[in-house]
Design a protein that fits this description.
The chain is of the alpha+beta class. The protein is built from three helices and eleven strands, in the order H-E-E-E-E-E-H-E-E-E-E-E-H-E. The strands form two sheets. Strands 3, 4, 5, 6, 7, 8, 9 and 10 form an eight-stranded antiparallel beta sheet that branches. A three-stranded antiparallel beta sheet has the order 1-2-11.
Length: 188
């Protein structure tokens, strides 16, 4: 039995690597959109339902997450209401102990003619070092895109991309834009 396990283990490990590699660019169907997995290798599917898909990239020095999820978007269906929803989501993040490194930047934009509000901001959290009385700071860089989907009554789409590490990075913008461009809202 042991010899069989030793022979099969490398095959299992290789199949896991192949599965992780094949995730890049894979399409996931949601309620009203198709979402491409992030385009680089190493991402894992963490959660998938009819209204949400979540991916994670776990590296020894950083973690990235990417998510697209639909939410109930009550009237009025105006950009100012999207801005308030985005600010509310950001306030929920800061209520867990995060503090702003820089104020959020907001921008009105579109996703395939659907009106959206984009927000980018970094937060800093102080966490305890496991097995020690020391603390360290973790930086989260967030990118949010909240959109009204008029073809689907009272429906919004929230896209989020986050990077967390002890150090910030400036190399996220292109990766975020690639993920967002891989989301195709379906027409009825």
């Amino acid at each position: 039995m042991y010899k069989l396990f030793v022979r099969i283990l490398p095959l299992i490990l290789l199949s896991k690597i192949a599965l992780a590699d094949s995730l890049a660019g894979k399409k996931y169907d949601l309620f009203a959109a198709k979402v491409n997995a992030p385009s680089s290798d190493g991402w894992q599917l963490i959660d998938k339902s009819e209204v949400k898909v979540t991916f994670m990239y776990n590296h020894e020095n950083f973690i990235k997450t990417a998510q697209a999820s639909f939410f109930a978007f009550p009237p009025p269906h105006e950009k100012s209401n999207l801005l308030e929803i985005t600010k509310k989501n950001i306030a929920e993040l800061t209520s867990t102990g995060g503090s702003f490194i820089a104020e959020p930047k907001f921008e009105y934009t579109n996703l395939q003619a659907n009106p959206c509000v984009k927000a980018t901001f970094p937060l800093k959290y102080t966490v305890a070092v496991k097995g020690s009385s020391l603390e360290k700071q973790i930086i989260f860089q967030y990118h949010f895109l909240a959109c009204n989907i008029p073809l689907y009554e009272n429906t919004g789409l929230l896209v989020s991309f986050a990077y967390s590490s002890e150090k910030s990075t400036k190399a996220l913008d292109q990766e975020v834009e690639l993920f967002i461009s891989g989301i195709k809202v379906q027409e009825k």
